[in-house]
Amino acid sequence: MLCCLLCWVNASLAAQDVLPSWNDGAARQHIVDFVKKVTTTGSSDFVPAEQRIAVFDNDGTLWAEQPIYFQFFFVIDQVKAQSPQHPEWKTTEPFKSALAGDLKGVAASGEKGIAQLMAATHAGMTTEQFARNVNAWMSTARHPETHRVFTEMVYQPMLELVHYLRDNGFKTYIVSGGGQDFMRAWATAVYGIPPEQIIGSQGELKFELRDGKPVLMKEAKVALIDDGPGKPVGIERFIGRKPIFAFGNSDGDQQMLEWTASGDGARFAGLVHHTDAAREWAYDRQSPVGKLDKALDEATAKGWTVVDMQKDWKAVFPAEQK
Amino acid sequence: MLCCLLCWVNASLAAQDVLPSWNDGAARQHIVDFVKKVTTTGSSDFVPAEQRIAVFDNDGTLWAEQPIYFQFFFVIDQVKAQSPQHPEWKTTEPFKSALAGDLKGVAASGEKGIAQLMAATHAGMTTEQFARNVNAWMSTARHPETHRVFTEMVYQPMLELVHYLRDNGFKTYIVSGGGQDFMRAWATAVYGIPPEQIIGSQGELKFELRDGKPVLMKEAKVALIDDGPGKPVGIERFIGRKPIFAFGNSDGDQQMLEWTASGDGARFAGLVHHTDAAREWAYDRQSPVGKLDKALDEATAKGWTVVDMQKDWKAVFPAEQK
Q1: Is the ipTM of this complex over 0.90?
Q2: Least CA distance to B227: which residue of chain A?
Q3: Residue in chain A lying closest to B193 (CA)
Q4: Out of B207, B233, B238, whose CB is closest to A238?
């Protein structure tokens, strides 16, 4: 009797503990129902642990992405830090605009300009040096509007979701258009996701011996753009099986959600909809960053789970937790 | 007292159970000593479980590779199977030689010829169709000399090593010059290594919707040659941390071993030396397949562990187990 009572109390506590920053609502319920059915032995929807693959976009899904992708703040700060060694940058685009913090000027330089900025800040150094650069920047740089360090701009409800899935035997992956090496430098500590489960856009690497010591040099040549149709490619190449759970927030995630949803058996496809101008930002179909248009229509048509950030989340950032 | 006796008996049994197909000798001892020191809490060489990354070459390290890489038998058999739809192949190289089983003729067609054969057999189909082709072939094709199915030509002592490492908290990876999709089709069942831990040479993939259903098409364009200096590249890209344990058998593994050995703390670098003409094949510095020359010199110079297949292994293939 005491035992039963203890079980009941524990079960009740456990139910309360799950996803505490999520309001009761359809989105939270879809998640909990899905996890329950794929983890219940004997259920027709049961999925063995090794096949419980969950993939998450990063920018706009696990952390914020306004007014521009945070990796771009890193690019601009690295250009500024290197500028004393490059006096010609003061008069040469796209560096001139980057040094002035003129994002429109940078955008005007087009893909070629972006590639030049990436080459100057993400290539021509060893993987170890790059990781040191990212970590040094991440420990001091602050968001221009919230004045928080960027690792504090992750979404508390999504952190809880990632942990909840892991507690239920899921293997959690990041599958992001952002830079793989950029994310791996900090995301393991922040999300508890190991480097081998962080997939992103990536450049070519070159093995070299320097003073007899092997290094990997980062080259200014793209190996994979892990965005849009590149996401299922990254998933197949790195994971080699179809996820059963995927979460994104933009049209760049549409093919990842389609790929996930196309498998047999129970599947979960979710979108974070940025609806909260007071606590975060409100944007979707017209936004140059994190545009959510076609994927929102497909979510409606196919019954994917759409999280209304304003209604579904009690807190947005960890600092707001009660 | 009974408890102590049980502990002692269990420990003795466990020691006997470890690597039973390995003869007592320096190679076996190096392995056991290494595993013991990196897994003993409080040891100065202790390595936390999440950093216990072990990488294995496949061809010549986990399974045999003579007289040619087994994947090439698959290529030839696929060309034969497709030849009724390609009457022009009877008179066009490299297909003419492939259809005749004339390996020298195929080799004479050079890299361009090999690329044409790979394109005809490894591209222009979905990833799912390719996996079906590999599995169908693997269940029936037999080695021309041993007449065994190819999955029976794995090395029993290496199977035991992979399991021994896993039992000690290691995460075991294949890092092979062979085709990633080719290996993933069968290697999980044979080695117990999941697809996401099988890294190999790979082509580009393209996401497409076919009748509204998403597929990934295999393209005839190389994305990574995971051999030689490409192995550390594959390791960094897929795993994102340096292994502490690596096993290979040829010069194609040299940079993987260098990369592994270059890390701080305890490291293990091993080579399988094919010395057993009676039970397997004997070859090294002059062999066109699995050439072991520079890496053997480096192993000697640096004290890497070299397995003498004839002396160190009680059995080579699973069928020979006592």
Answers
A1: yes
A2: A207
A3: A50
A4: B238
Q: With contact defined as beta carbons under 8 Å apart, do B257 and A207 qualify?
A: no
**Cα→Cα distances B211→B78, B126, B208, B215, B237, Å:** 27, 14, 10, 10, 34
Picking from B105, B140, B175, the residue at the C-terminal end of a domain is: B140
B248 inside domain:
yes
Of B127, B205, B214, the CB nearest to A262: B214
- Asked if A79 and A171 sit in the same domain, the reply is no
User: Would you tell me how many other CB atoms lie within 10 Å of the CB of residue B88?
Assistant: 9
In a domain, B148, yes or no: no
Same domain for B85 and B59?
no
Last residue of a domain, one of B109, B140, B171: B140
- Asked if residue A215 and residue A309 are part of one domain, the reply reads yes
Q: Which long-range contacts (CB under 8 A, 24 or more apart) does B217-221 make?
A: B217/B124, B217/B125, B217/B126, B217/B127, B218/B122, B218/B123, B218/B124, B218/B125, B218/B126, B218/B127, B218/B130, B218/B181, B219/B123, B220/B115, B220/B118, B220/B119, B220/B122, B220/B123, B220/B124
Residue the block writes with tokens 């994305």: B223
Contacting residues of A for B196, CB less than 8 Å apart: 196, 238-241
Q: Structurally, how many domains does chain B consist of?
A: 2
In-domain check, residue B120: yes
Digits of tens for pLDDT over chain A (322 positions)? 444 444 444 444 455 689 999 999 999 999 999 999 999 999 999 999 999 999 999 999 999 999 999 999 999 999 999 999 999 999 999 999 999 989 889 989 998 999 999 999 999 999 999 999 999 999 999 999 999 999 999 999 999 999 999 999 999 999 999 999 999 999 999 999 999 999 999 999 999 999 999 999 999 999 999 999 999 999 999 999 999 999 999 999 999 999 999 999 999 999 999 999 999 999 999 999 999 999 999 999 999 999 999 999 999 999 876 5
- Both B61 and B81 in a single domain? no
Statement to judge: residues A186 and A308 lie in one domain: yes
- b/e B239-263 (16+ beta carbons within 10 angstroms → b): bbbbbbbbbbbbbbbbbbbbbbbbe
CA dist., res. B201 & res. B31, Å (int): 28
Asked if A182 and A77 sit in the same domain, the reply is: no
Contact B164, B56 (CB under 8 A): no
Q: Select from A223, A236, A238 the Cβ nearest to the Cβ of B216.
A: A236
**Domain-embedded: residue B62:** yes
Whether residue A35 is found in the same domain as residue A171: yes
Rounded Cα–Cα distance for residues B317 and B310 (Å):
13
* Closest-CA distance of chain A to residue B214, Å: 6
Q: Which domain holds residue A82?
A: 70-140
Considering the domain architecture, whether residues B102 and B170 belong to the same structural domain is answered as no
